[in-house]
Amino acid sequence: MPDVLIRGIDNEMAERIKEIARNNNMPLNDVLLKLLRQALKLDAETLAVANPKQDIARLAGAWDKDENEALRAAIAAFEQLPRS
């Protein structure tokens, strides 16, 4: 079986992989193999990879780009108001 070296894993991705490994009580290598198999649709069994950010978006809905920009503009406008 060939080995593969993956370069350029950022800190956020590394921490997420470690979190999944802890939550599933699995070694990092096993988690990476499982995630690759899932991503490639080669494995029907999924790991518990719940992401609270995504869970909330699914329940409450998500904003599109225009809505997000409008909110940011409104926040910026409030930040320009004089403070008393």
Percent helix? 55-70%
Rounded to an integer, what's the Rg over CA atoms? Answer: 20 Å
List how many beta strands DSSP finds: 0
Query: Which sequence of SSEs, written as H and E, runs from N to C?
Result: HHHH
Strand content: under 5%
Main sheet makeup = none
SS element count, helices: 4
**Structural domain count:** 1
| Shape assignment | elongated
| Euclidean distance between termini CA atoms | 68 Å
Question: Which tags fit this structure?
Answer:
4 helices; elongated; 84 residues; mainly alpha; single chain
How would you describe this protein?
The chain has 84 residues and is an all-alpha fold. The protein has one domain (11-80). The chain is 61% helix and 0% strand. It contains 4 helices and no strands. It has helices at residues 11-24, 28-39, 52-60, 65-80. It is elongated, with a radius of gyration of 20 Å. The termini are far apart.
Summary, kept brief:
The protein has 84 residues and is mainly α. The protein is built from 4 helices and no strands.
Topology record:
Elements: H1 11-24, H2 28-39, H3 52-60, H4 65-80
